[in-house]
Specification:
The chain is of the alpha/beta class. The protein has helices at 3-12, 17-25, 32-46, 85-97, 115-128, 143-152, 166-172, 179-192, 209-222, 248-261, 271-276, 280-286, 299-302, 318-331; strands at 49-52, 54-59, 102-107, 133-137, 156-158, 195-202, 226-231, 291-292, 335-337. The strands form 2 sheets. Strands 2-3-4-5-6-7 form a 6-stranded parallel sheet. Strands 8-1-9 form a 3-stranded parallel sheet. Helix 6 (143-152) links the parallel strand 4 and strand 5. Helix 2 packs across helix 9. 49% of the residues are buried. Bound molecules: iron/sulfur cluster.
Length: 348
């Protein structure tokens, strides 16, 4: 991408549909200027800090059947697990010992974890680690449930919209799910007062440049605190088995564009980037990302949380995982930071 286009995006933090569609359609060649512009913007707001969030994948049961997901309800080959409340608290205690001050509880939409059970876990985490931020990523819920988790002490919520094009949404999800409800959830979360993370897959089946443009426009409407994107990766035990996965260069281009359009956003270098290329997360950091989420889940369940094939980082204990990521972050020219790490300019 030309220098002048990167500079235009940096200064305007927006562009018209025509320019965005061109950038989303063309095959990325040399995007060095774009990565450098994105990196300069992230350094303006965050310096060289890369925030670490301790991830606890506590259940791979899910009542939903998203066509792209390896732990969808209909995948009878998935070996299911749930962590007990004590196991979750043990993971957090180990994370705390390693210095983490943010925990992300992530799971499928598992009816076993009623609001009451989840609130108990969130309250206990909050009680034991009052200086930490508790993040939830447990899918679509009624507004009252989100309010109850907030009242129990959760302050951040991750829920990717996955695609903001209703027709595309219908090709990725069964008829029981809707883009309308996904959006309702995200706006409810914002209104309640959560720091909200959303995002989408890059290169998912049937995705067009117009879908990606809608994703950007929707994010501009939502103004999330965190934006998670990564290349779509195919899982063999889903209806999309055999569909091609997304590619690294397009993923990096879109990540950099998002940094220029949303200068203060927290943008993770996702595991999906590290799965499409051995140095994918380092490249994502250099292209504007400023968060990584090391895994704190017990090693015995890591491989079972298999959203897509060949997921990385399933073999190391939490401490090894942290050491490995810190080395990768340093090799890319940044510094791992374990503080709570609110978004720039946030008063929360
Ligand atoms: S993407 Fe999320 S909601 Fe959909 S099947 Fe997978 S875990 Fe469940």
């Amino acid at each position: 991408m030309q220098n002048s286009v990167s500079e235009f995006l940096r200064l305007r933090q927006d562009a018209d549909d025509g320019l965005l569609l061109r950038l989303l359609s063309e095959e990325p060649q040399d995007d060095t200027a774009l990565y450098e512009a994105a990196d300069a913007v992230r350094r303006t707001w965050y310096g060289d800090a890369v925030y670490l969030r301790g991830l606890i994948e506590f259940t791979n049961y899910c009542k939903n059947d998203c066509y792209y997901c390896g732990i969808r309800h209909g995948n009878t080959r998935a070996q299911r697990y749930r962590l007990t409340a004590d196991e979750i608290l043990d993971c957090a205690a180990e994370g705390y010992r390693l210095g983490y001050r943010t925990f992300v509880l992530q799971g499928g939409e598992d009816p076993y974890y009623t609001d009451e059970r989840l609130c108990e876990i969130v309250s206990a985490l909050h009680r034991e680690h009052p200086d930490c931020a508790v993040t939830l990523s447990v899918g679509e819920k009624p507004r009252e449930s989100y309010q109850a988790y907030f009242d129990a002490g959760a302050r951040r919520y991750l829920l990717r919209h996955e695609t903001a094009d209703a027709a595309h949404y219908g090709r990725l999800h069964p008829a029981s799910m809707s883009l309308e409800n996904r959006k309702r959830c995200l706006f409810d979360l914002k209104e309640i007062g959560y720091q909200v993370g959303s995002g989408f897959m890059i290169g998912s089946p049937y995705q067009t440049p117009e879908c990606l443009l809608r994703d950007i426009r929707f994010l501009q409407q939502l103004c999330p605190d965190m934006i998670g994107v990564g290349p779509y990766l195919t899982h063999p035990d889903t209806p999309f088995a055999g569909m091609p996965s997304g590619d690294l260069k397009r993923g990096l281009r879109i990540l950099s564009m998002l940094r220029l359009l949303f200068p203060k956003a927290l943008i993770p270098a996702t595991t999906a980037f590290g799965t499409v290329a051995p140095d994918g997360r380092e490249l994502a950091l250099k292209a504007g990302a400023n968060v990584v989420m090391p895994n704190l889940s017990p090693v015995r369940v890591r491989k079972l949380y298999s959203l897509y094939e060949n997921k990385i980082c399933t073999g190391e204990e939490a401490a090894e995982c942290r050491g490995c990521l810190e080395r990768r972050i340093a090799s890319a020219g940044y510094q791992a930071v374990t503080s709570v790490g609110d978004p720039a300019g946030s008063a929360r």
